[in-house]
User: Fold this.
Amino acid sequence: MLPMPVRASSSTWSAATVISGFLVLSSFSACQSGPRERSEPSSPGAVAASERFFPTGEFTTSAILLRQYSPSEVRVGQEYEGSIDVKNLTDVDLQNVAVDLDNLSNIEFISAIPEWSRKNGEVTWILPVLPASGTQVIRFRAKATAAGWASNCLSVTYANKLCASTSVVEPVLQLTKTATPEVCGTCSEILLTYAVRNAGTGTAEGVVIKDALPEGLSLRDGRTAVELKAGDLSAGIEKIFNVTATAERRGTFASSAYAQGGQGLSAHSESPTTTVRQPVLAFSCDANNRVFLGRNLDYRITVRNIGECDATGVVIKAPVPAGSSFISADASGRIENGGVVWRMDNLPAGRSATVTMAIHPSAVGTARTTATASASCVPPASTECATEIAGIPAILLEVVDTVDPVEVGSDTTFVVTATNQGSSADANVRVVATLPSSMQFVSGAGATPVTAAGQVVTMTSLASLAPGAKAEWRIVVKAKSAQDARSRWEMTSDQFRTPIIETESSNLYE
Assistant:
């Protein structure tokens, strides 16, 4: 290893004689006693070279060779050029090499490349690095100021340093959190993205990301806190994590996440917001309040989205009422599992949709259906349609005499039948007969008691006569005199305030 710093123990020295305008330059071994130096002989018009090994003067034990070149003669005041070779004799770089030019006699240095520094009349060149086995050339311009001898001395030092260093690092955590800005429906997924980065130097160890979710927000597994292990992060490394959450209700949700690592490292994110909007379905049904049996019944079902965003996957279902049969539905309706189903892709906020279906009731009573509407992420809504199915009574009155013609003094029986041919019951069914004078009431019996007052025979009112039901009475009369007789039978009821009249002809003979 080369000793450092070290300063040469001797210098190389050059001199010249200036005569009659000519300068003769000779090389000398040293400015003072010391190790040997070599010089080349000079001659008029030649270039003189002087050199020396530093610091010992021997090639094998020295580190630097200095060699100076100058012209052999110059005129007084005439500028001339020279050079200095600084050669590194070692196989390592030499640092802070200083070449000093001193003991100037009758020489004025004008300029040099590289530049020098001057102090107290001395000139110094500082070479920060002299590469291993490399040579640095210093070129200069100078002039002699008077006839005679001109001389200068050179010396060189260098100072290599042994340096030790320790890497000083400063990890810096940066955490960014983003969230889906807006979703429609509480079951919609909210994407939460966490990006943690080591923006400093060195390694951030054991990095963990944590986020306490706001009330009403939770992960798929029901947890309300996020914890993500990012591990060790080298300088410039970023890791990204995605998790999904859902909201329990509509509203705006926000939270700030933080990251922490070893040695007290930490970082907080901003608090991105997510707004959860919700569709809301309102439902109504429009149907006739009353329909007579035998006629079709039409339903108009309307669903409205009174929420804040579009409802998707809307499905309306309406069962066919019991005792009724399906007739038709609008174009989008399909009969499925005993009911009509309508499916629509989208119902925008503030909009409504109306569907229709027709049924045929088969019995008197109330036709009732409970329709439901549902959509993605929307609580179902329902509505009830109820319609009275009314029947129409239709009473047929029939009177038949069992014996005709009837001999005077003999009896005949009138069979009186009231039949409800309609679709609903009739009430207070009452039959009154008026007999001709040629007949005499004998007796009566049947569905209700029978009374007579002279020629008027009354069958007490029947409280109710159901559809398809019959009420029968048997009235016995006697023929009193020969006659083409006509008996008159009148029936009234709650439905038929105007009497239904039946006339029966009987031939009475002697």
